[in-house]
Amino acid sequence: MPREASDVRVIGQLSLPPSGQEAVRQLPTGIPATAAPTAVSLATPVPTREPTPRPSPSPAPTPLPETRSIAAITNGDLGATFTLTQARIADVEYFSKGVKYGLTDGTGRIVLLLWQNVLEEVNARYDLFSGSRVRVVGEIDEYQGELEIAPRWGKDVVLFSRGERPPIEARAVRDVTASDEGRIFIVEGKVTRTEGKGWLRLWLHDGTGEILVFLPERLVAFLPPGIGVGARLRVTGEVDIYNGQLEIIPLAGADVEVN
Question: Which end of the chain is more exposed for a tag (fewer CB within 10 A), N or C?
Fold first, then answer.
């Protein structure tokens, strides 16, 4: 910052070029010609742009095992894992460790074996009845001369379509009658007494009446804690009549909820 006007002196003159030509800067007298200084940009620096985060690609779905028709499965395939598509449930049989479903596909018959621990994981378990169609992935086994396909996980049983049966409904105990045999109902009430010997029997009272809930031995190990006299339960199960006694039988321990 000069203090006075005399502190600024002109030591060289700028020659204006002819019109149309690029102007040329003349160096001041007495200053040697040197290389032009490196230009310094005074523009605002552009901030470094970070790459836009991208979600990791979803893993590719695991391909299903080889698809077979039932007729194409033989004793030579024991231990192999196959997929059955659009197999129809023909019949149902309960046994001490789970449930067996007879499957057909127009070419033959095979048993769908659901051990109780697998059945507990099947969300559509109450839709597995005669006339329903399913896709099944499982290991081939044989028992007493009959071929079986046994899924390892509940997700290996996929419902494609339901057979014809009335939907699941919530009912007051007084409204459950012998004419409802085979229906699936939800009942709620307080346990008034129990009886057990491997299996478990509960008498449930809801203020309108009392009904017996029978819990087969195969599912007792999967029941939630807290079941006993005085407990309030919400039970989903099939209406059955045994020795003239009306009862409700759940398919899985998960169908008995403690409120």
Answer: N
Domain boundary among 101, 129, 161: 161
Half-sphere exposure of 222 toward its Cβ, with a 13 Å CA cutoff?
A: 21
Name the nearest CA neighbour of 228 among 203, 198, 197, 253.
203
Note whether residue 81 is domain-resident.
yes
Residues 6+ apart with CB under 8 A from 220: 196, 198, 199, 200, 253
* 118 sits in which H/E element: helix 116-119
Do the beta carbons of residue 108 and residue 100 sit within 8 Å? no
* pLDDT score for 48: 55
Pair 205, 230: CB distance under 8 Å: no
CATH number at 250 reads 2.40.50.140
Structural domains in the chain (count): 2
Tokens at 156, concatenated: 């290996």
Tell me, yes or no, if the pTM score tops 0.90: no
Find tokens 């896709």 and name the residue: 135
